[in-house]
Amino acid sequence: MLQKNVGSVDRILRIVLGAAMILAFFLVEGTYSWLYLLGIIPLVTGLMSSCPLYSILGISTCKKEQ
Prior knowledge:
By secondary structure, the chain is mostly helical. The chain has helices spanning 8-27, 40-48, 52-57. It starts with 7 loop residues before the first helix and ends in a 9-residue tail after the last helix.
């Protein structure tokens, strides 16, 4: 199980950005429109509240428990 390391503001931004990029994939035509599918990454990490890259770098945007 992945440890949660994405805070609430970070999580919301990831979900909105990911959803917008996926939507743009369907709305924008062009040679490189497939790059909008990279929005799957922030969408999934936002929904899971866990980012593998943050884990590797030792970053956490979650509030610290007291």
